[in-house]
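Entry for the shared binder. Reason: the reviewer on the internal report wants the predicted structure included alongside the sequence.
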Amino acid sequence: MKIHENYIRRCIQLGEHGLGNTAPNPMVGCVIVHGETIIGEGFTSPYGGPHAEVNAVASVNDKTLLTQCTLYVTLEPCSHYGKTPPCVNLILEHRIPKVVIGIQDPHDKVAGKGIQKLREAGCEVIVGVLEAECRWHHRRFLSLQEKKRPYIILKWAETQNGFIAPSKAVRSKNPEPYWITNPNSRQLVHQWRSEEQAILVGTNTVLEDNPKLNVRSWKGSNPIRVVIDRDLKIPHQYNVLDSEVKTIVLTQVDDDSKCVKGVEYEVIDFTDNVVQEICDVLNRHCITSLIVEGGTQTLQSFIDSGIWDEARIFKGDQTFSEGLPAPKIIATRIAKQKIFSDTLSVLTP
C-alpha cells in the first residue's frame, strides 16, 4: 500500500497544476507506472479539454507497455460522455490491467459507475488510497457535488486595532487608498483570485471602493464577479459592470430596463436566508469556489449563517483612530504565517 500512496501523492502534485483552470471540472492528476517506473503523467486540461487520464496516456511513448501498467488517479475515472469521451473507455481500450483511485467521484453521472465498469471488464481496481488527502485536494469540486454550493473562502484585512477601513468621514476628507497590508500580501490576494472560480462583494464595498475584482498582480484568469446589489444602486459606469469579465448581480429588482447589457442578473429573496439564496444561485451556475472579499456586513452574514469553509485574515501593522470594525469570528486557526510586516491567519469552522 505504501507504494500506492507514493504514486497517488504524485498524482495530487500533478493535479495542482490545474488550479484555477479546470473548474467546474475537478483538477485531477494521473500517473501511469510500468514495473517501478513512471512512464506517463498528466493532469486535467483547462475546462473543455482532455482529462488527466487522457493526457497521461498520450504522454506514454510506447503504448504497447500499457497492457502491463498500473494507472493511478486522484478521482474515479468518468464513465459518461460530456465535453470529452469517458476516460473509462480509454483505459479499457488500452487494456490497462490495474487502476488505483484516491476517491470515488460523487457526481451523479459517475458515482461508482466508472469503478463498476472497470471491474466488470476484468480490471483490478483499488479505491481509497490517501483518501483524506485526495478529498482535501478536491475540496472545491466535492463541495459543489456534496453540499450543492461552492467552497467558500472569506477574506479580509484588518488593522492592529481591528478595523477594515477608516471611517467614512476620514475617507471623504482624504479620498486616497488606505492600504492595511503590504504589497506582498496584496499580490498574494491576486494569486488567490486567479485560483478560485468566483469572487463576491456587497453593494457598499462597490460604492465605496469601485473595485475591478480582477487579476492584476499575478498571471491567471479573472474570477467570475458576483455582486450583491439588492436595489440596483450601483451606477452603470462602475468597474464591476464593465462587461469585461463575467458578472452576476444578485438583486430583488426584476426589471430588465435597469439591467446593464452583458451582465447577468439573478433575482433572489432578501427576506429569507440570503446566504443560502446566494449559494443556490452559484450552484446553478456550477461555481465550485468563491472568495468573499467584503464588506463587513456581507462577510458577517456568511459567518453568522455558518456557511463557509475557510477564513483568510490579514493583520497589518497599521492602526486607524476610528473606522469600520472587522467581522467577528470564532473559529479554529489551522495556519499562521508572516508576510513581512503582515500576519496571515487561516481559520476553519
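Summary line for the report: The CA atoms of residues 78 and 87 lie 5 Å apart.
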